Amino acid sequence: MTVGYPALGEAFPGVSDPTLSWVTNIFTIVAAATLVIGGVLADRMGRRRMLLAGVGLFLAGSVLGGLAPSVGMLIGARAVMAAGASAIHPAAVALLLASLPSNRLPLAVGIWAVAGGTSSAFGPPVGGLVIEWLGWEWMFWLNVPFCLIILIVVPAVFRESRSGESRALPDPLGGVMVAAATALVTLGIVQSDPWGWTDARVIGSIIGGLAVFGLFVQRSLHHPNPLVELRLFQIPNVRRSNLAMLIFASSWFGMFFGFTVIVIRSWGWTPLEGGFAVAPLPLFAGVLGVLIGRIAHRTGHRLFILPGTAIYVGTTIVLWLVLGDEPNAAVFITGMTVIGVATGMVFPSLMAASISDVSPEQHSLATGINFTAQRVATTIGVALGLTFVTSAASTSDAIDLLMGMVVVTALVSLPFSARIDTRPRGRQS
What we know:
18 helices; globular
């Protein structure tokens, strides 16, 4: 979808960028609201059954997207796909862990992480290739054969698995509140260009979203079975790592999406070229993350989070100073590679730190908090990146606005990251 966004703009020329952005934003908004619920349903109904149901939903959404005659139907299709993804991810992880003996779990999780990084890297160039050859619709049709393969193979390979304890379904109103709060803030951001940042509708949307989020926090603190167990925020490392993740991920996804639009729209690169140019970002982040995770478990995660953030900010500033209206492929791809390495130091470390002091029986709750923070951050980051890139008068202005946002948000995450301490107890001072 990242490399496909410019193609959607060409396919629907009468649709504004703020409206078109909801094709991307709706996915992460719905995912943020339904991911934890999907995990609980997998435990109760069976992981294999939930995985298959999620793939079925993702398949249905993909078909709707491929057939969509309008942006409105595309947005609806992406919402269906997001609900399917929220069922797939926790069910797949739980099914994997339940299918292997404990001594093989580290290897399995490592392979899973590498698969995630490499698939995220292959996504942009493969998406760019099918868009060039077959059209934007094939961003959706490409999912169909893979979904069908999974629907056939999973029942033959995996046995059903469910939790021994039947957890109650989390607060559904909490999910609605998360979606509403994120959507309102996103609305204010994406409409800031046509309406203006000082317009009452923009200010009202952002303030309204923050108010709904405040109500969600209050409800979660007092609800017997909240969507997100915010009481875990009483644990310092949980609180600090999730706040750092929320801020840093907004920076990263804003840059990833914003730069992809710049290289295709402004520099005139094809979707395939743009896909290959940004591929090092998730590739090195995923592969390096596995290696970093094994070392950080013994040394503490801050040892990688702080240098990784410093490399990320420093490389961004270099790109900010060097790149402009004319493309510079060598500098850009080198920068994406270095930032990918830095991301591999930061993201997995923040995720691991978010569960480091949590009891094993609460790992799923802590993981749910972290994934929800990532989904909200993705939505906000993409909205900011898109707004700055599409509202700028020139490519240089777009880079200035985008890089300024990326650097500032990454630096804001540092005070939280600097206080994370997951070193083995004997090594803490």
